[in-house]
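Entry type: protein chain
Record version: 2
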Amino acid sequence: MPGQKTATTRSLTRVQPATRKHSPGTNPVLRLHPGAIVRSALSRRQYRVGAMLGFGGFGAVYEITQITGGKSLDCKCVLKVTVELGAWHREAYFGELLRETPGVVQVFESFAWIPPGPDPTPLYCLVSELLEGGDLVNYLQKNTQPWAEAKARREIIRLLGSLQFLHAAGLVHRDITPRNVFVTSDLELKLGDFGIAVQQLGKQKAKADVFAPWFAPTAIRQGKAGAWLPADDVYHLGKIFALLLHGGEKTKLTPNHVKSMPCSSWAKSIIQRCIGVRRKRFANAAEMLAAMRKPVPNAEKTAAVRSLEGKRVVFTGKMTMLRKNAAKLLEKQAGGILQKQVGPTTDIVVIGEQSPHWKAESKGQKLLDLDREKERGHAIAVITERRFKSLLENHRKS
């Protein structure tokens, strides 16, 4: 998406390769000379071409200046030119659909244009706002400090607001990478580049046939998921949230990085749920947005549990006593019922210390399930291991 130097420089994997005439680096049609005039027959605006800002899989991007015709655009603009008709149609469509939507790079117009000269090849053009902070990769290379959690949360909420609209309409973006999230001069984030966004048709899900492999969910990247779901867009935004809180230019954050990041347990829980197994993620942007807008909870307090008898109990985290011994005492001494996973019938979760081997994609799932049950209105008591031992002692004496 037009916006800055690396705005269109991206690497996409096509599961079923598409035919392409040339890459922008070798296709001379996309090489516009500085000072060239591009004219829109629709708006009658004329633009003078400036420096090339970047080129990539779908076109080339130039800084431009409006010189005459039509309503004046009161901001710095960029021109994206491409020979990819399908990608141009999608970006033009979403540019119109999301016009003036907060959190989205604004597209002002789209048109076809035939450059003067012997080659009659038409170029498909998009004019959009230039965001001087560049894309998020470019910005974080220059500004390495982690973002304050409140600010990162606010900007993810901004992006989710527009993504929620897309998901509600049956659309998925498929390419919410740091190269397609742009930074304004006021340090606000905007989502751009809808060149591979698609809409679900009836019950037919969007194919996972085009994606950026360096930022895609594991199942997508390994070819184990044939469809791209809204939950996969959520995965992207969870990674973006982690990237902001981590700081620096590192874009391939692993679950172990999440564990050590300087942010609240609430933020880690949100990220963990986003990048965990697909069936446990927020199903779409609306679910993630609702979770992000809730007040940040205080640390869990010991619940007023007075007895373990007849209670269905789940253990999670590292405990000072062996888990099998705790289970025997629960069932034989206290008359409780052991459960392996948190579910609709769970009464109590006993939390030990956090495992040093915690990984967001494979561990901590019980706490994610606890959050899900709470969202569904199922009250589950959360107690510490110390409180659990105290209750066992009470049962022994009684």
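Comment: The radius of gyration is 26 Å.
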